[in-house]
Amino acid sequence: MNIKLSKNLKYVTVASFTLWVIAVSQVAQAEAEWVSVTMDNDTFVGNDNGYTNGIYVSWWDGPKGEEKAKPGFLARAMLWSMPGDVSSENNVVIKTIGQTMITPDDIEQDPPILPPDDLPYGGLLFYSDNFFQVHDNYADRIAVTIGVVGEYSFAEESQEFVHEVISSDEPCCWDSQLDDEIVFQFSRGRVWKTWVADSGNADLSLGADISLGTISSSVGAGFMIRYGRGLRYSYASTLLVSSRTSNPVASRNGWFVFAGTRAGYLGNQIFLDGNTFDDDDDESIDYDRETLMVTAGLAYSWKEVSFTFAINDLNANETDSDAADEYSEFGTFTIAWKLD
After folding, report:
1. 119, 147, 221, 269: which sits with the fewest CB atoms below 10 Å from its CB?
2. Phi first, then psi: what are they for 36, rounded to 5°?
3. Is the Cβ–Cβ distance between 70 and 31 less than 8 Å?
4. pTM of the model
5. What sign does the CA torsion over 112, 113, 115, 120 have?
6. pLDDT tens track for 205-243
7. What is the CATH number of the domain that holds 319?
């Protein structure tokens, strides 16, 4: 009886979360000015393991005349961390629904090599509510994310579908994936426009961010340098690098190349540590807590469409863990377009 009740509760929880995400996405789409789709994939850097795939759909809403963008329901939980009045004319709201998946190195090996010797099979389905306040020389970001890992992330179905379409190797062992768990994260970041060339075609931004939750917890600081055209309209989008749900985007027929780095400390990461309330050390892999993220890419906008491509390494430090290295390296592509 207890098992049945547990399963029923699980189904109700997941169904409620799914319906809520669908409702939120419908509201976000109705309010949004822009939509973006971002895809992360390790095949961009010559792999098909580790951080295998991530896909994120975002709705962007900014000020409309005298009407200012207001933080979403979840993001309001972090408003206490924002300085001063949040009724800025340059507020931006980004609501994201996304899915991330990871696998071991050899997806055909049965039984699979699992932690601590390799990455687990794991998926995350989530909703993230982001609120940006943009000023002339600095911008703030707050975000609250909720999601589910395990069977109801539907990562297994997504990977099997994609691999069937492209006639790739069929993964064998998703029955060993992380256990079902509701997860969350609170995030706060700021970027400062530190230097701008006299021509306006180059700038340097410094940033800092902190996150806390069962998805991951970290603190870090770094910089990004850009060269291009129309930079003053898009510097705040550099805050998106730490969110991993989108990329820096160009706007108003602007373009830029960018490169940046972030030094930080990673307190926990559910794909590397295993389920939050599982004390079994065999479910986690060894990894360096001190991180050095490196990113480089190109952003281009034409009329009402924007494209970004970047290569990311979440930890460029030399490590003794091949599994952790596989998780950290991937390419990412974003396309954004303005709604009618």
Report:
1. 221
2. -130, 150
3. no
4. 0.86
5. negative
6. 999 999 999 999 999 999 999 999 999 888 998 898 877
7. 2.40.128.140
